[in-house]
Every structure is written in structure tokens, then in C-alpha cells.
Amino acid sequence: MLSLGTILLILLVLMVLSALWAVMATDLLRSTIALALTSVFLAIAIYMMGAPLAAVFELSVCAGLITVVFISAISMIKPEGNTRKEDLARKRRKRLKKYIPLPILLAVAGVLLWLNRVDLPFTPDADVFPLTLSEIMWDVRRVDIAGQAVMILVGVFGIVVLFKEFVRRGKGGEE
Amino acid sequence: MENLFWFLTSFVALLFIIGLYALLATRNLLRILIGMEILTKGVTLLLIAAGFLAGRQNAMQPIVITMIVVEVVIIAVAAGIVIASYRNNKTISVRALRNLKG
Amino acid sequence: MITLYIALPLAVVLLLNLSPRRTANALSLWCGLVLTVFAGAYTLAMPHVPGLADAFDPANRVLQWKIEAGNLAGVMFLSIALVVFSAFWVGRYLIADSNRRFIFNNLLLLCMTGMNGIVLSNDLFTLYVFLEVVAASSFILIALERTNAGLEGAFKYVLLSAVATVLVLSSMALIFVLVGSLDYGTVKAVLTSGQLDAATSRFVTFAIGLFVVGLFIKGGMVPFHGWLPDAYSSAPTASSVLLGGIVTKAAGVFTLIQLAQNVFGWDKPSPVLLAVGTLSIAVGAFAALGQRNFKRMLAYSSISQIGYIIIGLGAANEVAVVGAILHLFNHSTFKTLLFVNSAAVEKQAGTVDMDKLGGLANKMPVTGFTSVLAMLSTAGVPPLSGFWSKLLIVLGVWLSGAHAVAVTAILLSVVTLAYFLSMQRRVFFGRLAPGLEGVKEAGGWLLVPEIVLAVITLGLGLTMPWFFNTFLVPLRSLWSL
Asked: Could you please report the per-residue DSSP string of C316-330?
């Protein structure tokens, strides 16, 4: 059996790698998929750390809904410039040049972090927490639920304001 | 894993580096949103790690759930701004949005 | 009934959107105006210690929300109600399309809910949720007309706000590891217990530092102020009234005051706050001198004035903090007044470029007069309200021993006067600019907020000696030294 630490290590390394892919991929669609993959690994890690409900939300909302938002945004945007093969290759080389410092930076940062480990200066008091999840959610955090409702309303108005006319114009063809 | 705190925050730090690099290096508005998303992933991991270390995942879960919902709305609004800008300028380069000065 | 500050605007928005669209379009303005007047009147009638009234709050007994309001909250509720009230009139005046105006009115109400939530929250995470509500509604308000400038301003705000959010949430995670809770009271008890060893104190300082930098970004303080002039000046003017009048103050400055007092337990003068405040005053004032765009100049002036609030907070004695809170209120009245005036100028003269304006005082007597009033108050000329708050701040800063900061603040006040005089000369006084012969005074929709705000600026200044006992002395209890 693998220990919790080993599983977390594997998951988090995979997560960082897919985040790196999301940033470095040439194609926006692939970036989005890599981002969703990052969310999936993160969700499993969250589950392993004893937060199954949050993991479900991470999986459904971040890996699901946000990917939908991104893909619909990408589909509304036509690819820029021509897509000839040599152009594509040149573009890819240019991107590689711009992003090659990032993995190097990450490796250096990783090594530095590994060498200069800092412990928490205190021991968190990990007593048995008296309240259950539903008590916290619906009693302690009741205002947050109201805040969420307000936030979702704001989001609805945002979509009405920012997306609406595009749909109308789309029906009438170009311009 | 004797120092779980440092182990987890190291990964958060790596995610922050990726996210910030993405914000600074790109000229594509949608890629900026991807950078923002990666920063948010880092924060989610940090919050869950905090709940795990403090032994109070029950108290942390509702927080993370609310945060995820709130961030979705922010990303949706931001994507709306990008789309509206694309409609005006037919490009998603940052250059279209770089005229205010002074 | 402090629950109503969140529940009522939310209920109004829901009802408006459920009712038939045509009725709702017509109703939204009046609902909003009645609501803001009610909020203002209710705040004024509220007993001095609303926390006590909380126990008898029937609405809260049903909803069981864990919120609370201290003495400072009253000032904030009043400012919020006043600015949102003005923004409704300006929106009615400037936004022609009735559907868009309906959306604008709804977003104003949601933003108001968010700001009231910021004031009422007593948990760091609840604070974050409402901060994001305010931020998201501000993005949409800035981008409302989907002009390129508006979208650019909004996108910059989105970006900086995302960074601020990351900082604030990381700080919360670190605090949570130590404390195991994010409740203001519990966190303060641990942070100020005095039993933390040196390493833990460094950890706490780091966490608080992240939080404060996040709030600096939200409040547009100087090293992080880049987004603010763009967002303010590119937004539709009706939205600028709200943003310039209250949003950064509720999201950045008020939150900082609230947390310094209720969570971090700061009771010593803070060199960082004094330095950031002084820098904000200086950079904002000198940048304002060089502006051509009326709204952009007002935005830089906001940065500068918020600097005064921050040095007041940094001095951390009761005189300075009371001054800072008073300045918070004053600034939201006179800056809103100036933005309303800019709305009048924009609508009547068709531009806010100060090089193309001039001599409007004769054509627009009310707007001209009220803007002189607001500008003198901003510059701290007696007996207007801005004079008293600046006096208290400078006095408090001097008492705290930061003499250099106090002197700099006074000197930079002269720069404030200079850029406003230059603005007055270029917009309202002097020869009438060509092409502006047909300009008339703005319509009644704008004169109402102009006159209300001007009366408050003048009246508060003249009656300040009376307010010292009824308004400021209760506030002193906030800050026990």
C-alpha cells in the first residue's frame, strides 16, 4: 500500500505538470483541456485530504463548468491569422522560446524549496472538531450562502450585459 | 512525510509561479484567464491544506465550496469581457486593450 | 434589524426580476430610491450601539445570520446609501436605453448589498464573499456600455482584483492553520494573546502582510494604483459615481480600518501605513495636476484623498482615526458630488476633456457652484466638512509623533487646491469655450443629488461643533488606546 504522502506527491506533481502544459500549449483548446486535467488531479488530492464534498465541487464546477465557459468563449473567437504549416511551426518555436524559462524556473524553485524546508513554528491544535459539516454549512456559514446567491445574480446580469448582443448579432450572420 | 506543511505549500508556490508567469508572459486575453485559474487552483490547494493541517476539514469544506462558486462567476464575467472586447476589435490580443494612459 | 441591510436590496432585486418587464423597468428606479432613502433614514435613527439592538432583531431570529455592526458601521451605511442614491439619479439622467438602465439599477442594488455585507460581516471568509460581490458588480458596471475603454478598464480591474483575491485568501489559509477559525473575535483573541513565540509572530506578520497588500490593491493605494484611474475614467459616468464615491472605500479602506481594529488589533503607529498613505497623497496629487480628462483627474484625486484616510489609520490614535472615518464619509460626499458634476458636464457639453471646456459657470450655475463647494471641501478649506476631517487627521498624526508626515500632508493639501483651481479655471471659469454657446443647466434628475450632496458638505461643516458630541464622541469608543 502506498502511504498518503506518496499518493499526494504523485497527484500534486501530475497537477503541476498539467498546469505547466496548460500554460505552454500552443493550442488554446488543449490549454483548456490541460486546465481541466489540473482540476481533476487537484480534486483527487482534495479528496485524499479528507474533503470529499469540496472535491466534488472542484470536479464538477472547475473541471466541468469552467471548461464549458472557456470552450464556448474559444468557439466564439475565430482563430487569428492564417494556419499554414510553416507559420504554425514558427509560432510554436516563438512560444517555446517565450515559455522555456518557466520549467527551468519551476525546477530551480522546486529544488530551493526542497532544500530550505521551513517547519510550521507551532503545532496546529488538531482536536476533534465538535461541529459536523452540515452544522457548519447551514448554521455558521448561512450568510455566505446569501452572499453566494447575490454573487450568482451578479453573474446572471454579467452574462446578460456582456454576451447577449453577440448572440443576436450571430443570428444575423457576419457583422 | 514528516513536514506536511512545507510539502503542500511548496506545490502551492509552484502553482503561483506558473500562474504569475502566465499572467506576465502572454498577450492573449484568454490565456490571462487561464493564468488566473491556475492561481485560483493554488489558493484552493492552500485552503484545503490549511484545513487538513488544522484537523478541521469540516470547517474548511464549506469555505472552499463557496470560493469555487464565487470564482466561477468571476471567470464567467471576465470571459464575457474578453468576448465583448473580441467583438469590438476582432482580436483577443492585449494590445486591443492598451490605450488608456496618463 | 441589521439583517435588512442585506435582505432588503436582495429581495427588491428578486421581485423586480420576477415582475413583468415593462413595470419593472419603470419601478426599478423608484424602488431603488425609496430603498436608499429608507436605508439612510434607518441608519440615522439607529441606536448608537447597533450590536445591542441585534438581539431584538426579529428578521435575524428567523434567518439566523451571523452578522454584526459596530459604531463604525453607521457611518458606512450612510455613505453607501447616499452614493447609491446619487448614482440612481445619474443613471436615470445619462442612460437612455431603458433595458440597460434596468440592468444598471439592479447592479447598483446588488453592489449595495455587497457593500452592506462587507460592513456587516464578522468573519474573514464572509468578508471575502462580499468583497467579490462588489468587485464582480463593479466589473460589469465598468463594462456596461462595452466601449473599448470601458472593457479595458474593467479587464485591468479584473486582473488586479484576482491578484488581490489570491493574496487575501492565502492569508486566510495561513491564519486558519494557526487559529482553526476565521471568525473576527476568535482570530483577534489568538493574534493579540501575547503568547506567541518569535517564530509564530513572524508567521502571523507574514499572513497579515499578505492580507494588507491585497486590501491596498483593492483600495488603489499607491504602489498598486495603476488600475484605478483607468477603471474610473473609462466607466460610464453613472458607474463612475458609484466607483469613485464608495466602492474602493468600502472594499479597501473601510475593510482595513475594520480589520485593524477587530482582527489584527493594531494599536501602535504603523510606519508602513504612514509611508503608503503619504506616498498615495503625493503621487495622486501630482498626477492629478497633469490631467486633461475631468474624470481621470477626479480618480487621481481619489487616490490622494484616500491617502489621508490611511495616514489617519496609521497614526492609530483616536483623534486621527476619528478624523479618518469622518474623512471617509466626507470624501464619499464630495467626490460623488464632483462625479455628478462631471456627469452634468459630459451630458451638456458633450466632453470631459478640460482643454475643450471653459466658462461653463454662467451656463450651469448650480453645477458650477456645487463643484466649487466640493473642491474647496476636498482641499480642506474652512468651514466646509473636509476641513474638519483633515484637521483631525493632521492633528492626530502630529500627536502620534510623525511630524514629517503631518507637515507633508498639509503641504500637499496646497497641491490639492492647486489642481482643483486649475480644473475650475479650465471648466467653469474664464471665457466660454467655442462651440459651447448652447449649453444649458443639467436637468432635474441631476440637480437633486447635486443639491443634496452640496447641502451635506456645507451643513456638516457648519454644524461640526454639534457633531463633535453626537457623532464623533461615540466613534471614539472604537479605538481604545
From this structure: -SHHHHHHHHHHHHH
Assess B27–A contact: CB distance below 8 Å, yes or no: no
Mean pLDDT of all residues in C436-452: 81
Neighbours of chain B (3+ CB pairs under 8 A): A, C
Tell me if B1 sits within 8 A of A3, measured CB to CB.
yes
Give me the number of domains chain B comprises. 1
DSSP B97: G
Residues C355-410 pLDDT 10s: 778 778 778 888 888 888 888 888 888 888 888 889 889 988 988 888 899 999 99
The shortest C-alpha distance from C267 to chain A (Å) reads: 25
pLDDT digits (tens, 9 = 90+) for B8-17: 999 999 999 9
Residue C27 CA to residue C11 CA, distance in Å, equals 14
- Are A103 and A20 in contact by the 8 Å Cβ rule? The answer is yes
Structural domain for B74, as ranges? 28-95
pLDDT at A122 over 50: yes
Closest to B101 (Cα-Cα) out of C156, C301, C140, C145? C156
For chain C, domain boundaries: 267-481
Cβ within 8 Å, pair A155-C130:
no
Per-residue pLDDT averaged across C81-96, rounded?
91
Can you give the residue ranges of every domain in chain A? 1-78, 132-175
Q: Indicate the helix (H) or strand (E) that contains C28.
A: helix C21-45
Q: How confident is the model at residue C481 (pLDDT cuts 50, 70, 90)?
A: very low
Taking contacts as CB-CB distances below 8 angstroms, the residues of chain B near C114 are: none
Which of B68, B71, B85, B94 has the highest number of chain A CBs within 10 A, making it the mutation to test binding with A? B68
Q: Does A90 contact chain C (CB < 8 Å)?
A: no
Cross-chain Cβ contact C143/A120 below 8 Å: no
State whether C176 and B29 contact (CB < 8 Å).
no
With respect to residue B15, please indicate whether it lies within any of the assigned structural domains.
no
Q: Are the beta carbons of C203 and A146 separated by less than 8 Å?
A: no
Chain B residue closest to C169 (CA)?
B43
User: Most distant CA pair in chain B: distance in Å?
Assistant: 55
